[in-house]
């Protein structure tokens, strides 16, 4: 039985790794989220992606998530992620995968390009887990947006309600909607 269990566990891990590669995840995400060996992951990556993984550091800064359009995309993803976490008992990485797939679907349904990569989505969840980022409700629309911790909710206005002057009226992230949470 133990043998069968370990085969099942391995199959599940390979399945996760393949899904993450298909979504465009960096190799570091796979290393962190599976117990498969580096060599194994590297082979799998080349097989599925048809190329070698890109080298270099993962983005470690929270700054990107604070810029206008990325913030709206990140907030959309994180709202979906929080909802899934409350509504189901998915393993942490499966919640990231599922939320990312739903984020992609919503973005593409509006004819937009996903701006948030799965690697950044994964980092975002880590940043929220360790308290470097959080969500704050907008004082105008009530939608929850990614912010630094200790943002004063009474004064916070999101990037949809207060887009930068240069934003114009094009079909950009400004046409996305972040649902206000029911309390
Ligand atoms: Zn708002």
UniProtKB/TrEMBL annotation:
This is Flagellar transcriptional regulator FlhC. InterPro entries: FlhC (IPR007944). Functions in complex with FlhD as a master transcriptional regulator that regulates transcription of several flagellar and non-flagellar operons by binding to their promoter region. Activates expression of class 2 flagellar genes, including fliA, which is a flagellum-specific sigma factor that turns on the class 3 genes. Also regulates genes whose products function in a variety of physiological pathways. One of its GO terms (biological process) is bacterial-type flagellum organization. The keyword Transport does not apply. The keyword DNA-binding applies. Zn(2+) binds at residues 138, 141, 158, 161. Keywords: Activator, Bacterial flagellum biogenesis, Cell projection, Cilium, Cytoplasm, DNA-binding, Flagellum, Metal-binding, Transcription, Transcription regulation, Zinc. It comes from Rubrivivax albus. GO terms for cellular component: cytoplasm.
């Amino acid at each position: 039985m133990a043998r069968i269990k370990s085969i099942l566990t391995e199959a599940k891990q390979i399945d996760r790794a393949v899904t993450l590669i298909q979504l465009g995840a960096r190799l570091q995400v796979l290393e962190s989220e599976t117990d498969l060996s580096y060599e194994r992951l590297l082979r799998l990556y080349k097989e599925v992606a048809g190329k070698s993984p890109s080298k270099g550091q993962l983005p470690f800064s929270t700054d990107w998530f604070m810029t206008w359009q990325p913030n709206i995309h990140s907030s959309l993803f994180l709202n979906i992620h929080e909802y899934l976490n409350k509504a189901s008992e998915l393993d942490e990485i499966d919640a990231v995968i599922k939320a990312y797939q739903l984020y992609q679907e919503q973005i593409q349904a509006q004819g937009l390009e996903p701006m948030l990569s799965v690697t950044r989505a994964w980092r975002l969840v880590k940043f929220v887990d360790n308290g470097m980022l959080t969500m704050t409700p907008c004082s105008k629309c009530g939608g929850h947006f990614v912010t630094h911790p200790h943002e004063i909710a009474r004064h916070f206005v999101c990037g949809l309600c207060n887009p930068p002057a240069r934003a114009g009226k094009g079909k950009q992230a400004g046409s996305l909607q972040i649902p206000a949470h029911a309390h």
